[in-house]
Automatic annotation (TrEMBL):
<feature type="region of interest" description="Disordered">
    <location>
        <begin position="31"/>
        <end position="83"/>
    </location>
</feature>
<feature type="domain" description="Cupin type-2">
    <location>
        <begin position="112"/>
        <end position="172"/>
    </location>
</feature>
<dbReference type="Pfam" id="PF07883">
    <property type="entry name" value="Cupin_2"/>
</dbReference>
<feature type="compositionally biased region" description="Polar residues">
    <location>
        <begin position="33"/>
        <end position="73"/>
    </location>
</feature>
<dbReference type="InterPro" id="IPR014710">
    <property type="entry name" value="RmlC-like_jellyroll"/>
</dbReference>
<protein>
    <recommendedName>
        <fullName>Cupin type-2 domain-containing protein</fullName>
    </recommendedName>
</protein>
<dbReference type="InterPro" id="IPR011051">
    <property type="entry name" value="RmlC_Cupin_sf"/>
</dbReference>
<feature type="signal peptide">
    <location>
        <begin position="1"/>
        <end position="25"/>
    </location>
</feature>
<keyword id="KW-0732">Signal</keyword>
<dbReference type="InterPro" id="IPR013096">
    <property type="entry name" value="Cupin_2"/>
</dbReference>
<dbReference type="InterPro" id="IPR047263">
    <property type="entry name" value="HNL-like_cupin"/>
</dbReference>
Amino acid sequence: MATYFTIAAGLELLVFFHLQVLVKARSDIPHPLTSTKTDQRSHIVSPTHPNHTPKMSTSTEQSKPTMTISRQSRAGVPSINGTESMKTFTGGTVWVDLVVSAPGGELSVANVNFAPCARTNWHRHENGQVLRVTAGSGWICDRGGQPVRIDVGDVIWCPPGTVHWHGADDDSYMVHQATSLGKAEWLEPVTDDVYKAKKRS
């Protein structure tokens, strides 16, 4: 029993000594948020707003890290009226805020705001699409399938080549973030009869 306690005490002292060495060694490393040396990586321009540079802290106090905020304001960047300019929506007004668009149409990310009853045309995506509902409620439907209700927090994967539509409910706005992979092929509008059939599903 005495040997056990001696070994245990020795291990505790060894661990304590090791931690003290680590603490002393790291005390010479400046905190990343309080270092007075400029980190070039902190000045990367936001892809959403090419003319915007994140505001960085100018604090030089080593003991008081400060908050860093990267502004994502859309000031001066108008939303797109998808119903009028894109001709790929029907049933109501749809506003589109483009977040990211890669050259050649390989990738696009957009926040899409549907008024009640508004929906996309039938369409498909070359390499699929991910939808994440951030406000309101709506519906999504594959060609030949039954409409399925979608709500805040739902994440939907639309496989490559699957013909589908999605949009808001009759009495609710819906906002979703759409990440589209590859080119989209837009087809005919979703008729009122097809849209109303969701209530019977």
